[in-house]
Design brief:
Layout (H helix, E strand, L loop, with lengths): L21 H14 L13 H13 L6 H6 L6 H7 L5 H9 L3 H27 L3 H26 L4 H10 L1
Helix pairs in contact: 2-7, 4-5, 6-7
Amino acid sequence: MTSTAPKTIQKTVQIVHEPPRKDAGKAARAAELRAANINPRTGLATDYLNHFNEAIMLLEMIPDMPDCAEDFLTWQPLSYREHFAASNFRARELAIAAYDSADPAIRGEFDSITSAMTSILTAVGAAMRQARQDKTRATLAEQATGWVKPLVTLAGGIINGKGAKADVDYIMTH
């Protein structure tokens, strides 16, 4: 008996392309943010706090070295966007974009705290410009440090997703 089937059989393979999974895009974005030292849960970077830590460092030096008051008085407030636009942060555009797309409630809470820090530091700078004695500048510096340091810690908690709202939102969406 002879077979009428061809000796070579060709298979037709249909390649089915699955659409990219939504989770895959989120995971890639999260990895990109983590690699840039930006919290993927909040869209915020701790690098911005360096702007305030610099002012605190200068304030802490004033009681022992009154001439440092002049250095503090050169400190200028910068918004989150302004800080990153002017920085050498390697992923500054990503940091700004992540901030712009961050949950408005988290960003609002963060902006409120950084605004308070900016107001304190600006007011202390104005008072130091009016002060005539080093002792007065030292007192202002110590008071400002006591007010701003806890706010930096609070802002860091928000950046790192430690705020109550951030935790609830993360849990509810995952």
